[in-house]
Amino acid sequence: MTGQLAFVESPVQLLNVLEWAHTRAAAPDAPRTAPPGAPGPADATPPAGAPGPADATSPLTVVVLSPTDPMSRGQLRRMAQLARDEGVTVHWQEARGGRGSLVRTLRQLARPLRSAERVIIGDPFSRYVQLLLTLFGPRHLTVVDDGTATMEFAAQIGRGERLVRWHRKGRLGPRELVLAPVTSLARRRLAPAGGRTVEIFTSLPVEAPEGIEVTENSFAWTRSRFGPPLLTGGADLVGTSLVETGVVDAGHYDRVVGELARTHGATRYFAHRRESAEKLHRIAVETGLQVVRPELPLELIARRGPVGRTIVSFPSTVVHTLPLALAGTGVRVAVCEIAPEWLRGSASPRAQGFLSGVAGTAALEVDRLTARAAGPADRLGFG
How high is the pLDDT of residue 144? Predict the structure, then answer.
């Protein structure tokens, strides 16, 4: 395994690796551009030492660092087959397969990591990826989206802060203290330096730190391979794992899902892969919504169709990605903002500001919805 080596731990990461490869193959020497709203000139030229057209012809190998939850594994296996259909070499690595799996994985990946000209990662906050980066520093590094955390990653790198997921508390626990040296070294490896370039491939409006290139992900591969979708007459809701991550109160969330369903005539609820079975059962019983566990990332599911003429989501990556994937189809995307009173007392102090930023920076064609914790359904209108 030489050339370009990608490490993915989620279906969305693998989708965005395919989008990155498609963009490079379509215009290998085109100037990189920033997504709408991001700073920097659209015709910025690459810095000295940045990769050129050779990237487009270098072999791409994807290593799947397999997660443990069944839904993610199922989606990843289907995404891996799509990648193989595109001519990409995919290696499935049981990186979390019990005792000894970490050492075994590091031993097996040592040689390809050392020989890779470019390493592509999807989650710079991943302890697994951080450990790999501390052992082997690539010449060229690309970070692709794995949710809205890309925005926080770019901001933290720019401010020189330690890498912490936005929904985590600021205090260091015992595990974080032990891993602090790993995180610190990984942060340096994730920043541009002499002989190393860093690229962010994103559909999100990030504030790129000095020296980091931003390449726009327009979901060109998705649009070229799937759809356009058949549109149904109703609306679809997109679920979120904000309850499972301890950010949003479960009672408030269930109530607002019901209000959104009634207000917008929704019939289906697309579950996030991390939502609990108990919560999804409760939503189905109390709202009458058909709960759908997608077999692929939502961008592909929506593009293939059928899909509602309106898609309503809470603040998440899809309010940025779906308008791109569904461009020209007539689908209306709306984001329901998170009211402060929905947050749990244990939520990170940064949670409200981050979620507001995700909603506020969505594409101009995305409608904003406002709601209150216990307000009537007619308060969940388009704003």
Answer: 95
